[in-house]
């Protein structure tokens, strides 16, 4: 299933994204309530996907990110694979960094270089802590696409990543949550990032240094994850700068594409 959060006018809801079997046109079938808080039930209402505004599919209490999880990205940042293999590198983005499909990415005036980092993301289904590897599949609701936007110069200047990763709009997520994939399937998906149609990043989730069970088990060894929390799984090589007016698109095979335009604040 593809579960979206969307707005029609001032009304916000959740829905299943479905394609008409005859025309191929896509619709959103409205759900009753929150998909993470009970059984998924259809209301019988539906709208054309083109007539609604897609929002970030969840509003997480926190976004937990794994850094240095692709060897080629570690190398391009001047590191060695060995420094990232023993334990996952973990950092946080605030909930206020979350943006949705087609929302602007705002370039902060204090930074001279803001980079894209396309990633696959995991959405958590239930409160969980100290989850063993073999039970990680039980706490995953689904998967989505994310962009770990980063003020690269501030990341280097601050020597820690909170400010560089935490600006408003620095975590686009969407276009929806895809459920029903096994962990094995999620760990062999193609990932690309384009800027104005030019390919910048290309990798596969099979290149993870730390796999999904390892990430979730490690995070929950010291932190409780809550329903709707999002785990970003790392970015492949090819990160690069964004300029005002550009359009950045991150695509993960079977999960969809999230596109955002880069702007400066007025």
State the helicity in percent bands. 10-25%
Q: What string, H for helix and E for strand, traces the elements in order?
A: EEEEEEHHEEEEEEEHHEHEEHEEEE
Strand composition percent: 35-45%
Ranges where pLDDT stays below 50 over 5 or more residues in a row are none
Question: What kind of sheet is the major sheet?
Answer: 12 strands, mixed
The count of domains is 2
Query: Count of DSSP helices?
Result: 6
Radius of gyration: 18 Å
Name of the CATH first level of the largest domain: Alpha Beta
Overall mean pLDDT: 95
The rough form would be described as globular
Termini separation (Å)?
Answer: 39 Å
CATH superfamily placement of the largest domain: Fumarylacetoacetase-like, C-terminal domain
Specify the structural class.
mainly beta
Question: Mind telling me which CATH architecture of the largest domain this is?
Answer: Alpha-Beta Complex
CATH fold name of the largest domain, please? Answer: Fumarylacetoacetate hydrolase, domain 2
Strands, total number:
20
Task: Supply the key terms.
mainly beta, globular, Fumarylacetoacetate hydrolase, domain 2, five-stranded mixed β-sheet, SH3 type barrels, 266 residues
Please describe what this structure looks like:
GO terms for molecular function: acetylpyruvate hydrolase activity; isomerase activity; metal ion binding. Keywords: Metal-binding. This is 2-keto-4-pentenoate hydratase/2-oxohepta-3-ene-1,7-dioic acid hydratase in catechol pathway. Residues 62-263 form the Fumarylacetoacetase-like C-terminal domain. The protein is mostly beta strands and 266 residues long. It folds into 2 domains: 2-55, Roll (SH3 type barrels); 63-264, Fumarylacetoacetate hydrolase, domain 2. 13% of the residues lie in helices and 41% in strands. Strands 1, 2, 3, 4, 5, 6, 7, 8, 11, 12, 14 and 17 form a 12-stranded mixed beta sheet that branches. A 5-stranded mixed beta sheet has the order 9-20-19-15-16, with no helix packed on it. Strands 13-10-18 form a 3-stranded antiparallel beta sheet. A hairpin with a 3-residue loop joins strand 19 (247-252) and strand 20 (256-264). The chain starts with a strand and ends with a strand.
């Amino acid at each position: 299933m593809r579960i979206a959060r969307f707005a029609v006018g001032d009304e916000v809801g959740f829905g299943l994204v479905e394609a008409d079997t005859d025309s191929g046109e896509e619709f959103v079938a409205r759900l009753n309530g929150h998909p993470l808080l009970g059984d998924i039930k259809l209301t019988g209402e539906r709208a054309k996907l083109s007539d609604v505004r897609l929002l970030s599919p969840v509003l997480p209490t926190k976004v937990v990110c794994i850094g240095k999880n692709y060897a080629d990205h570690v190398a391009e940042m001047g590191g060695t694979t060995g420094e990232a293999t023993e334990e996952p590198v973990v950092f946080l983005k605030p909930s206020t960094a979350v943006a949705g499909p087609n929302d602007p990415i705002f370039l902060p005036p204090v930074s001279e270089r803001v980079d894209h980092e396309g990633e696959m993301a995991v959405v958590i289904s239930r409160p969980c802590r100290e989850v063993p590897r073999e039970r990680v599949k039980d706490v995953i609701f689904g998967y989505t696409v994310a962009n770990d936007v980063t003020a690269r110069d501030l990341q280097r200047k601050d020597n820690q990543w909170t400010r560089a990763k935490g600006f408003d709009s620095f975590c686009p997520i969407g276009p929806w949550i895809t459920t029903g994939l096994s962990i094995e399937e999620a760990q062999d998906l193609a990932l690309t990032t384009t800027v104005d149609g030019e390919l910048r990043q290309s990798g596969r989730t099979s290149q993870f240094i730390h796999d999904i069970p390892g990430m979730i088990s490690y995070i929950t060894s010291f932190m409780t994850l809550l329903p709707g929390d999002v785990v970003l799984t790392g970015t492949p090589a090819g990160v690069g700068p964004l300029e005002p007016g550009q359009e950045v698109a991150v695509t993960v095979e079977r999960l969809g594409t999230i596109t955002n335009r880069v702007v400066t604040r007025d």
